[in-house]
Amino acid sequence: MMKKIVLATANTHKIEEFHRILSHKLPDLEFISQKEFKNVPEIEETGASFAENALIKARAINNFTNLPALADDSGLVVEAFDNRPGIFSARYAGIGATDAKNLEKILSEIKNFEDQYLKAYFECSIAYVDKASNIEFVVDGQMFGSLVKEIRGKNGFGYDPIFVPDGLEKTVSELKDDVKDEISHRGKALEKFCIIFKNLV
């Protein structure tokens, strides 16, 4: 019987990325979404950092399901905006905001900035919690680049359509999935997770 790990997210896009990246790195594990469980409690992300929020989510889902849990907290950090939106990236335009609304808000804020002030990076913290084995750890990854002032590309989600990684001319939304996974903040964090996990089991 395959070991099950619960992905502590209901975000369809994140679930797809987790499966795409982890399915070939850890093929002997079964990753299931918290969406497969009924009455999952609302988790308040009260942490002051991506790492703290990832741990809050992983601990909550581990406690609720009694299965090992893997959680992600990630976002966009714009240096000229005092590191906003940061941990508020998913709700930058308000609680329950759509990707489109968040993009609309940040595009309206950067339209008068000169390009050299649009340096930014994505950060991702991945937390793994398995209380039955007394294991808990957090890893992170970053993707550095800059923002553009128009939406470009159809792939990806979140702020991908306005973010150009360093060394490239395309936005993340214009990249193929395998290219994105190789350079993305989430891909880098999951690579670290896999290395540590393999050494623990």
Q: Note the beta-strand portion.
A: 15-25%
CATH topology: Maf protein
- Mean pLDDT comes to 95
Q: Given the C-alpha coordinates, what overall shape results? A: globular
| Helical stretch tally | 5
How does the helix and strand content classify structurally? alpha/beta
* Level-1 CATH class name: Alpha Beta
- Overall CATH architecture: Alpha-Beta Complex
Low-confidence segments, ≥5 residues, pLDDT <50?
none
Distance between the termini: 16 Å
Number of domains: 1
Record field, number of beta strands = 7
Sheet having the most strands: 7 strands, mixed
- Which bin fits the share of residues in helices? 25-40%
- Output the radius of gyration: 17 Å
SSE order in H/E notation?
Answer: EHEHEEHEEEHH
What does this structure look like?
- There is one protein chain.
- The two termini are 16 Å apart.
- The protein has 5 helices and 7 strands.
- Strands 1, 2, 3, 4, 5, 6 and 7 form a 7-stranded mixed β-sheet that branches.
- The protein is α/β, with parallel strands linked by helices.
- The chain has a single domain, classed as Alpha-Beta Complex (Maf protein), CATH 3.90.950.
Would you spell out the secondary-structure blueprint of this structure?
Elements: E1 3-7, H1 12-25, E2 29-33, H2 50-65, E3 69-78, E4 84-85, H3 99-110, E5 119-130, E6 135-147, E7 163-165, H4 177-183, H5 185-200
Parallel strand pairs: 1-2, 1-3
Antiparallel strand pairs: 3-4, 3-5, 5-6, 6-7
Helix pairs in contact: 1-5, 4-5
